[in-house]
Amino acid sequence: MIFPEEYKCVGVSKALPEGRVEPIYFLTEYLLVEKERPDTGITEYSVYHVKKSGDGLLRKVEALEPIASGEEVVKYDKELNIKDRSLLIETAVKLCTGGVNTVIFTGVDKHVTIIHEPDPSGILEIEILDIAPPDPSWLTQVVRRLEASGIFGDLQVKFMENTVSLRQFEGENTVFPCSSSGLKGKCLDSDVLTENGHLLVGCEISKSLFEMRFPELEYSFMNICPFKSDIVVPNGPFITRCCRSEKSGFVKINGFEGVVVHWGASEYQVSEAVRKLALKLREAQPELLEQV
């Protein structure tokens, strides 16, 4: 896959001069040439890799190596956030059918970039591991808002949701940690228990509180802390949350690398955690780093 790191590396020319090529801007690594066919009025495109020499703002062109031209190249007809690398790769994959292998994208600022032979395997998948309600889960809402803002665009990542619904445990004999969840059952923060046989759905903190409030009662326990749970389990690299701030940071659960944020983390803290995880994962997988 050829996908320039920055759109500033892509130069645009209306036509190549006959017999020679003018000096080129020093940042230009790829040249997109637009040429309108006089018989049809249709614009055709050619893409080249630029070999240049010299110093200064303008450099001597030593060679233009053809990458794609004619029917191999299409121009996407909508303006996109061309800093969102995952979006562009996934869009290009859909457009590269038949003989097409190269897609030109235009940003909302009118700059352009190209992708040649798009490869979705270069996109890093990160799982959002969380519980519900609310629906969507709190962490999912935060990550999706941040994703929509474009803050992760340069990381070339996509997010998969792994949400465990606590509604499966609703019932008269179930005890949840907090009444704000809206779950049907009893809650540690508002109910007084007098009988044995309840199911407590929570974490180690909930367990400690239960035993402090009702030391004489017998109960069963479903642990939903991702560090110890049998049901809140990642299936790949992940971000999750924990109510204990000292647990925040890089972790490994079920054999997968991940990052933990505090239960009440801010959007900024979540975005920083995702960025640090993505960079750490790419350092551990050089083949992905090469594709960014």
The coarse silhouette is elongated
Please mark out the parts with pLDDT under 50 across 5 or more consecutive residues, or reply none. Answer: 288-292
The percent of residues in helical segments reads 10-25%
Domains counted in the coordinates: how many? Answer: 2
Contiguous helical run count: 5
User: Mind describing the biggest β-sheet?
Assistant: 5 strands, mixed
Main β-sheet, spatial strand arrangement: 1-3-4-5-2
* Class computed from helices, strands and strand pairing: alpha/beta
Residue-averaged pLDDT:
93
Distance between the termini: 10 Å
Rg (C-alpha, Å): 27 Å
Q: Count the beta strands.
A: 17
* Beta-strand share of residues: 35-45%
Topology pattern, helix = H, strand = E:
EEEEEEHEEEHEEEEHEEEEHH
Structure description:
This protein has helices spanning 85-95, 138-149, 204-213, 267-284, 286-289, and strands at residues 10-13, 24-25, 30-36, 43-53, 58-69, 73-80, 102-107, 112-116, 124-132, 157-165, 174-176, 186-187, 198-202, 219-223, 238-242, 249-253, 256-262. By secondary structure, it is of the alpha/beta class. Residues 288-292 have low confidence and may be disordered. The protein folds into two domains: 7-120, no CATH class; 123-292, no CATH class. The chain starts with 9 loop residues before the first strand and ends with a helix. It is built from five helices and 17 strands. The strands form four sheets. Strands 1-3-4-5-2 form a five-stranded mixed β-sheet, with no helix packed on it.
